[in-house]
């Protein structure tokens, strides 16, 4: 059974989890020296991800109960952060795996 962090963080639960995973993403990007490249990719992806997020929230595909309630340009603050953190994690993992292969550290 997973711990109920919602009982601890309440309306800040989603934000807190994003900050934790955002720090992991930042560490991976710094470790791979890929922060600038990732930033450019995220900037290009952001508008499409925003539209997708806005649309799915608007039609009721999902709801986010444990959030701050702060909305910016039609979507929750946490979703803006999510749009940055997810690709940052993917790019961070990719870059670190690529560098391992490049150095011959994987089979």
Task: Write a concise synopsis of the structure shown.
This protein is mainly α. It has 4 helices and 2 strands.
SSE order and pairing:
Layout: H1 6-9, H2 13-31, H3 35-58, E1 71-72, E2 75-76, H4 77-102
Antiparallel strand pairs: 1-2
Helix pairs in contact: 2-4, 3-4
Task: Give your account of this protein's structure.
The protein is mainly alpha-helical. It has one domain. The chain has four helices and two strands, in the order αααββα. A hairpin with a 2-residue loop joins strand 1 (71-72) and strand 2 (75-76). Helix 2 runs parallel beside helix 4 (77-102) and helix 3 crosses helix 4 (77-102). The N and C termini lie far apart (35 Å). 17% of the residues are buried. The mean pLDDT is 93.
Low-confidence stretches: none
Structural class, by secondary structure, is: mainly alpha
Whole-number mean pLDDT: 93
Give the proportion of residues in helices: 55-70%
Spatial order of the strands forming the largest sheet:
1-2
Compressed to H and E, one letter per element, the order equals: HHHEEH
Shape: globular
Distance between the termini: 35 Å
Rg over CA atoms: 16 Å
Main sheet record: 2 strands, antiparallel
Strand content: under 5%
Number of E-type strands: 2
Number of helices: 4
Q: How many domains make up the 3D coordinates?
A: 1
